[in-house]
Design the sequence.
């Protein structure tokens, strides 16, 4: 599993903003980080 994570993480590069969706049963959460990836 760690190897798969490393492969997927390398596809995003070392810098750049990221946005993720957390699809729940009742709500949808959104997580975002700045290009420096200091906060998620």
Sequence:
């Amino acid at each position: 599993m760690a190897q798969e994570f490393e492969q997927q993480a390398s596809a995003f590069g070392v810098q750049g903003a990221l946005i993720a969706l957390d699809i729940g049963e009742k709500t949808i959460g959104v997580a975002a980080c700045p290009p420096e990836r200091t906060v998620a």
